[in-house]
Amino acid sequence: MPDPLNSAVFLTLLADAQRQLDRGYAHLPENPSTPLGPEAAAVLAEAATRLHDNYPYAHPLYAGQMLKPPHPVARAAYALAMAVNPNNHALDGGRASSAMELEAVAEIAAMFGFPQQHLGHLTSSGTIANLEALWIAGQIKPGEAVAASSQAHYTHTRISGVLGIPFVAIPVDDTNRIDLTALESLLRTQNIGTVVATLGTTATGSVDPLDELLPLQQKYGFRIHVDGAYGGYFTLAGNLEPAARRAYDAIPHADSIVVDPHKHGLQPYGCGCVLFRDPTVGRFYKHDSPFTYFTSAALHLGEISLECSRAGASAVALWTTQRLLPLTPSGAFSAGLAQGREAALALYRHVFASPRFIAPTHAPQLDIVFWAAAAATPAESSALAQRIFDEAAKIDLHLALARLSINLFPSGTWNHNAESTVLCLRSVLMKPEHLLWIERLCALLDAAANTAHTNV
Questions:
Q1: Angle 201-202-204 (CA atoms, 0-180°, nearest 5)?
Q2: Exposure of 423 by Cβ count < 10 A (0-12 exposed, 13-18 middle, 19+ buried)?
Q3: Residue ending a domain, choose from 278, 307, 324
Q4: Helix 210-220 and helix 180-189: axis angle, to 10°?
Q5: Structural domain contains residue 378
Q6: Considering the domain boundaries, does residue 214 fall inside one?
Q7: What is the pLDDT of residue 177?
Q8: At what angle do helices 72-81 and 4-23 cross, to 10 degrees?
Q9: What domain count does the chain have?
Q10: At what angle do helices 434-454 and 378-394 cross, to 10 degrees?
Q11: Are 114 and 254 found together in one domain?
């Protein structure tokens, strides 16, 4: 958890920045604020104690779900902005933070190779960002279905239902990527207006072959939406395998893309981002509310988003982080992504070589690793995986569990007439520090597996 020395530095930097902010309003008449006395200290201490009831998400031994701590500068910038509490719905509510959002989003668009004249903004989550992208798709392709792989995030099914858009799930291949043969068969027979390409599925980190979708788009005329909520930032990583690299290099040709800065972008929750290559889709957002626009005739964020009130502090935190850690292929930010992938490959090699585990047929494409416990049947493997998961937590190694198809494992591992799925152990190695801790992580995993076998 946080180093006390670093916590002290964090608080000092925040106090210095707060004094700088206060100087900007020093000319105003004094306005006595609500004092923070002993009662406030007591309830804050109580809140801190209640927060002990969490997994240690910030520590490298937390290698379970996709929970990455925000960068300290993002935390500080968010807290600093909360002294103003800007609202990025309208310029009147957040002048500086709205400008910072536009700048930060433009940097994300440039990272993806989108044109300078694009349309984009932050959202409160990847779910809302995907909703906006599919809403625009429905406006452009009314009555036509959305198609995504069966391993795409479940939010696409839900969103399509909310929007009243038909949804079609496409089977996946043995790497959990969208099956293009199955997709083309459906394109011939069904009215599909939008295909979602997932660059980094949340279960296995698989990367749909976006580059191979482009010829199908030319042939059938559908829109392409990229769900990069989890994996989008890996476009900067220099150590992707060739198939994933080709997919990421095709992003500039997509019609829209979503990415979550609150995942790999080192931001606090909630901070999503949606981008459209064609800025003229802004026409679908236009409205004429009489009470939100006072000081500017220019197009602003409240006119290009479905959400109304949005935290300007999110924009300030993102802008500040990207100033410190630019979105470049050769910087410290991209190096952190590459380190997470290296850690994932190291863990994959470890489970591949261990007689206690069964590794999938393909190495991880990003930084998510999954594996099964070695056992005679999927049911026995599932039960053993649960015991390993429990034993690992007892020694402070926190993993995750995911029920996946047995087709992801080498043929002959189990009788395919048995269960079609197996409960797998899963690890998201998204912290750069995971690479430094990988040997200890593997040793703890082996210890948990040995204990789980002994207690059978």
A1: 70
A2: buried
A3: 324
A4: 20
A5: yes
A6: yes
A7: 97
A8: 30
A9: 2
A10: 120
A11: yes
**CA 385 to mean position of chain CA atoms:** 26
Q: What is the pLDDT of residue 300?
A: 65
Is residue 302 reached through a cis peptide bond, with omega within 30 degrees of 0 on the bond before it?
no
Q: Tell me how far CA of residue 66 lies from CA of 126, 356, 373, in angstroms.
A: 13, 25, 22
Report whether 206 contacts 176 (CB < 8 A): yes
> Same domain, yes or no, for 358 and 236?
no
302 shares its domain with 388? no
Token pair in block for residue 80: 């600093």
Residue 118 has pLDDT above 50, yes or no: yes
Same domain, 315 and 337: no
CA distance between the termini of the chain: 33
Domain with residue 119: its CATH number is 3.40.640.10
H or E stretch covering 125: none
Quick one: 351 exposed, middle or buried, by C-beta within 10 A (0-12, 13-18, 19+)? buried
Q: Choose one of 324, 340, 375: the last residue of a domain.
A: 324
Angle 85-311-153 from CA coordinates, rounded to 5°: 160
Which residues lie closer than 8 Å to 229 by C-beta, 6 or more apart? 126, 129, 130, 153, 200, 258, 259, 260, 263, 272
Q: Does residue 176 contact residue 199 with C-beta atoms inside 8 Å? A: no
Dihedrals phi, psi of 432, to nearest 5 degrees: -55, -30
d(Cα 183, Cα 180) in Å, to the nearest integer?
A: 5
| HSE-CB for 402 with a 13 A CA cutoff | 23
Other CB atoms within 10 A of residue 454 CB: 8
DSSP assignment string, 67-104: --PPPHHHHHHHHHHTTT--BTTSTTT-HHHHHHHHHH
Q: Exposure of 250 by Cβ count < 10 A (0-12 exposed, 13-18 middle, 19+ buried)?
A: buried
Angle formed at CA 76 by CA 200 and CA 320, multiple of 5 degrees: 60
379/430 same-domain check: yes
In SS3 terms, 228-282 reads as ECCCHHHHHCCCCCHHHHHHHHCHHHCCEEEECCCCCCCCCCCCEEEEECCHHHH
Domain span at residue 377? Answer: 332-454
Continuous H helices in 282-377 = 312-324, 332-353
- Exposure string of 54-65, with b = 16+ CB inside 10 Å and e = fewer, is eeeeebbbbbbb
Give tens-digit pLDDT for 280-335. Answer: 998 898 765 544 444 445 556 777 888 888 999 999 999 999 999 999 999 999 99
Residues 278 and 378 placed together within one structural domain of the fold: no
Q: Does 439 score more than 90 pLDDT?
A: yes
361 and 318, same domain (yes or no): no
Q: Give me the pLDDT at residue 294, please.
A: 40
